[in-house]
């Protein structure tokens, strides 16, 4: 009888562990530039950290952050990150890093690729003229349940129309190539509204959290504010995509502010999701 009761208890614990929810987010941090004046990173970095902690982000993709900004974030001792700079594949330039809770996930593998015709090295793609664009990814194990998944964080070009379109194809190809049949999440600033071909390409391969959430989306539709507290927030350009292995329970665009200022020029997007 004790063995049977022990087995039942074990099964219940396994069921509880397998249903653990994940708070997943994407957050364009806005690069650290003195030109932002009152909104420059040193004036808002603590507000960004407070927001992350208050909303209990478990794992999130960042965009635009320099290495120093990411090091500021992981001053919160529960977090660490993976990802490299887009300029040299080391620390130079903006990152599309993945920040995650050390007590909740173990990083098993990681890598990076560039949004270009030569994705294995720092490079510009197609009609992009300003910047290299990078995607960073990691394979993670959720420690409590033992489940593994891949997480991709990306930032599409802001000028090149063809670069954004081709980046959609490349992302779908790379996610299939890297993750194969393992569960996968892709987040980022796609600099693209839902009517564009690149977003439709992503939606054809992965679930758009905004569309598949069980609870109706919370907050404004738009995700870019330009540091204007009265921004209309109509255009959705930041996304969280999940594959068939995940169920999205909740979706929100957060509008947290301090002194009538936003912590970044993008709103963070956050979902609560669970493995199916």
TrEMBL record:
InterPro entries: CCR4/nocturin_mRNA_transcr, Endo/exonu/phosph_ase_sf, Endo/exonuclease/phosphatase. Keywords: Endonuclease, Hydrolase, Nuclease. Residues 25-266 form the Endonuclease/exonuclease/phosphatase domain. One of its GO terms (molecular function) is endonuclease activity. Pfam families: Exo_endo_phos. PANTHER family: CARBON CATABOLITE REPRESSOR PROTEIN 4 (PTHR12121), ENDONUCLEASE_EXONUCLEASE_PHOSPHATASE DOMAIN-CONTAINING PROTEIN (PTHR12121:SF36). This is Endonuclease/exonuclease/phosphatase family protein. It comes from Flectobacillus rivi.
């Amino acid at each position: 009888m004790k063995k049977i009761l022990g087995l039942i208890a074990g099964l219940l614990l396994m069921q509880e562990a397998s249903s653990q929810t994940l708070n997943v987010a994407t957050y364009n941090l806005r690069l650290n530039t003195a030109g932002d004046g009152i909104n420059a990173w040193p004036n808002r970095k603590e507000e960004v950290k407070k927001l992350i902690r208050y909303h209990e982000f478990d794992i999130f993709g960042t965009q635009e952050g320099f290495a120093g900004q990411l090091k500021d974030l992981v001053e919160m001792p529960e977090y660490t990150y993976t990802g490299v700079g887009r300029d040299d594949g080391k620390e130079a330039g903006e990152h599309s890093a993945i920040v995650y809770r050390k007590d909740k996930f173990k990083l098993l593998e990681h890598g990076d690729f560039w949004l270009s015709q030569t994705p294995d090295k720092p490079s510009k793609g197609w009609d992009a003229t300003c910047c290299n664009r990078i995607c960073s990814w990691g394979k993670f194990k959720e420690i409590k349940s033992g489940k593994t998944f891949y997480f991709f964080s990306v930032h599409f070009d802001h000028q090149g129309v063809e670069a954004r379109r081709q980046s959609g194809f490349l992302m779908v190809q790379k996610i299939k190539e890297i993750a194969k049949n393992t569960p996968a999440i892709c987040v980022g600033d796609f600099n693209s509204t839902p009517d564009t071909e690149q977003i439709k390409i992503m939606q054809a391969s992965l679930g758009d959290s905004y569309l598949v959430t069980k609870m109706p989306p919370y907050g404004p539709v738009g995700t870019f504010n330009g540091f204007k507290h009265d921004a209309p927030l109509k255009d959705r350009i930041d996304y969280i995509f999940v594959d068939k292995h995940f169920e999205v329970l909740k979706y929100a665009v957060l509008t947290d502010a301090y002194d009538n200022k936003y912590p970044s020029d993008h709103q963070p997007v956050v979902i609560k999701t669970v493995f199916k």
